[in-house]
Every structure is written in structure tokens, then in C-alpha cells.
């Protein structure tokens, strides 16, 4: 996380702590005063400070996050095929009885197109 991102996040956390402290003090003040007719809702400035601090903290965290890695399913699938399929999370689906083996049928078709006799067992 860069220095600027850390400073922005720290500043946002300070603002959030101040908003929380202000809300606590406001609640204590009105609970001790025992004013039944007074509104106990938080003042708008405390609510706005809390929302702004959440936005500032979010911006700081996003700025400091590492770059996203590209999703490359073909590379992942190629690595699994090279290893023999041991890490394949879909292996149970592929090994079930009654399913058509696409790889074998594709190889048989390619051999048939080339004019080769398929290997008979």
C-alpha cells in the first residue's frame, strides 16, 4: 500500500472515530438531560461526517489495493491438463458413468478424417 493511500485511509479512520465519539457524546448528553420532549436523533453534521469518513476510508483502501490479476481460464485449464487432471475440481463430473467421452470421440474423428484405422481393443 502506498504512502498516499495509507494517509487517506488513516485520515478517514480518524474522521470515523471522531464521528463515533461525537455520536456517543450526543447520546450521553441527551440521556443525562432527561428531556422527554427533545429530539434524540443525531444531528446532521455527525451523520454527514460519518458518511464522508466511510467514503474516504473506502477510497484509501481502493487506492492501496494491489492490481487485479487477469482471469485466464484457458491457462488454468492447460496447467490442469498437463498435470493429468489431478487438481481438476470438475473431475467427478467427467468420470461419471454414462457421459460421452469427448476427447476420445474427437481423436477417433480426427483419425477417421485422416483415413487412419482407429485402434481396436
Automatic annotation (TrEMBL):
<comment type="similarity">
    <text>Belongs to the membrane magnesium transporter (TC 1.A.67) family.</text>
</comment>
<dbReference type="InterPro" id="IPR053279">
    <property type="entry name" value="EMC_subunit"/>
</dbReference>
<protein>
    <submittedName>
        <fullName>Magnesium transporter</fullName>
    </submittedName>
</protein>
<feature type="transmembrane region" description="Helical">
    <location>
        <begin position="46"/>
        <end position="65"/>
    </location>
</feature>
<keyword id="KW-0812">Transmembrane</keyword>
<keyword id="KW-0472">Membrane</keyword>
<dbReference type="GO" id="GO:0072546">
    <property type="term" value="C:EMC complex"/>
</dbReference>
<keyword id="KW-0732">Signal</keyword>
<feature type="signal peptide">
    <location>
        <begin position="1"/>
        <end position="19"/>
    </location>
</feature>
<dbReference type="GO" id="GO:0034975">
    <property type="term" value="P:protein folding in endoplasmic reticulum"/>
</dbReference>
<dbReference type="InterPro" id="IPR018937">
    <property type="entry name" value="MMgT"/>
</dbReference>
<keyword id="KW-1133">Transmembrane helix</keyword>
<dbReference type="Pfam" id="PF10270">
    <property type="entry name" value="MMgT"/>
</dbReference>
